[in-house]
Structures are given as C-alpha cells and as structure tokens.
Amino acid sequence: MLRAGIVGLPNVGKSTLFNALTAQQTAFAANYPFATIEPNVGVVAVPDERLEPLARIVKTETLVPATIEFVDVAGLVRGASKGEGLGNQFLAHIRETDMVIQVVRCFEDEAVVHVEGSVDPRRDIETIQIELALSDLATVERRKERAQKAAKAGDKAARAEIEVLDKLQAALGEGKSARTVELPSEERAIARNLFLLTIEPTIYTANVDEATLADRDKNPHVRTLREIARAETAESVVICAQLEAELVALPLEERRQYLLSLGVASSGVDRLIKKAYHLLGLISFLTAGEKQVRAWTIPRGTRAPQAAGGIHSDMERGFIRAEVISYNDLHQAGSYAAAREKGLLRLEGKEYEIQEGDVVYFRFNV
Question: What is the pTM of this model?
Fold first, then answer.
C-alpha cells in the first residue's frame, strides 16, 4: 500500500490534517512542539465518485475504495540531520514512506505558537529542505566511498554509480533536493536505490485559516508556497486543516453545503488525497459484481495479466483475456446488458494496458 508521510515543522497543523484525513480524532493535536512523537498511521480511502453509481448498476451495497496509508511524523527542527530534537527518529520515519506531504503554516494567529517566532513559508520550507538534504548528503558521501573502492577493483557498475553520486552530491551540497537533479532513466534507477529523503515526490500543503480559504490567491504566504512548488515542479494544495477536521463530524452532504457557503467547490482533503494517489503515477481500475464494487490500485501502464495478479496470483497465472468497458460507457448505458447490445464491451488480451476507470472482468483458468 502507498505510504504518504505528513511532515513539517512542529506546530504547523500536521496532526490536525491527519485527523481530517482519517476522519477521526486519533492524533494528539496540541499547541506545543513534539505533540506527536511516535508516528500516527491511518488508512484513508481514495475519494472515487464512480463507486456508488456503479454499485447501483450491479445492485450491491458493498463498496471497497482504493486506499492510501498516511503517516503523521513528529515535527522537524533545525539540526535534525545532526540528531537535534527528534531528528534521527523523524528522518527514519520519512525514509519508510513513498512520498512526502509537507505542511506549511500560511495563517497568522498569535494564539498558536510558531517554533521560529513568525510565519514565513519560504524559511520554513528551506529549514526542512536543508535538513533533509544534509541527511541525504551524508548518505551519498558514505555510498561514494564504497563505490570508489569497488571501482578501483574494476567494478564497472560502481563507476556508473559514482557518476550519479557526483551529480547528487553537487546538488545536495547546495541544499537542493535530489528530485531536482536531471537524470536519464538508467541513472534515476541507481539514485532510487539510495533511498534518499529528497528524491521522494512532494506535495506542499498550505495550511490556511477559514477566513482566507475562499480567497486564497490574496494570501501572500500561499503565493510564496506556490512559487516554490512551481520552481521544483512539485504539487501544491491549499487547505484549512482545522476546518476540515471539524467538518468530519457532519454528514457528507452537509460538509459539501458548508464548503459551498464559503465559496469552496470541494474538500481540500479530497484534493490532497487524489493528488497523493496520482503523483506516483497510480490509477484505479474497477471490478463490479453482485458481491461488491471495488477500486484496485495499479501503476499506470500495467498490462491486464499483471492487473489481474493484483487481485489474485491465480488470475495472472491462468489469464485468458479481460472483458473491459470504460466506466463512462457503462454508466451511460445503465446496465451490462444495454452495454453489450451497443457493443461497448470488448475483449482484451495479454498486451492490453489497463486504463484509468476501466471496469474489468478477468477470465482465467488454472
């Protein structure tokens, strides 16, 4: 399962956001640093508006959405790369995730203490960036020493690795992230094997107050955060974590109506989850029957047999073909019978790449 780490300086709203994401008040949100020591972990459903209509078509009440695991990590402070605060523990928890959601405070409130004494998104992002880069730099330097010894012994793979390590070392030494280094595919594969903190895809999350949520573009802190994200070709999301955490107590329709009253079209939490899901190149295909309607997570470009294997290994081993229809076609047809009459169902073989929103029935024999 995909794991997304929620990170940031202490007291910027990480645990409040985690509460909103998991729709439960399990994370201990408090107005002082290190309220979170051990990481809170929650499995979160990926919002998918297709499941309920599809369930009505096949007449089932059981819906199983795709999921993401969110990890609320302890706050980072200056010197974390040298063990300050909960540094080593913090860095270890990030290393275990697939992507990073960096929460950045973008609201003013004298009642909420900022660990640096003032609100400054650029400084806050740079603080975390530098600590992660310093940790990665130490990793690269250690790896380079081993690679140089192997290269002297005639190891060609080690020579190729050193070329990648040199590029990474130069960027990290300037406090830049590893993901900003342009590497061809074969070199990127080498870099990923280093498990660097700054190579992970990142979503910058601007945590704003309710008053500025609908008019976010006028918030100078949000503008700064977006500039930084664009410069790194990273994603960004604007969210009011406190509001979203409070709204989870309301029925879904009431949540929507309240957000609309604020001039907000959709939940920031929903946008964040969807961006986290797709940032790693993941898509969902659907299965639908009388027992359940379910969304399955696969990397984009996955062929039909391997997608079937995600359901059960026997289905991949004995794959014959896949009966496929797009969700939109099935929804418009209103039933499988009507879809068949219109010729919308098709049979696909082993080379077919599953597409986002495909509704699939796998035929197999073992």
Answer: 0.81
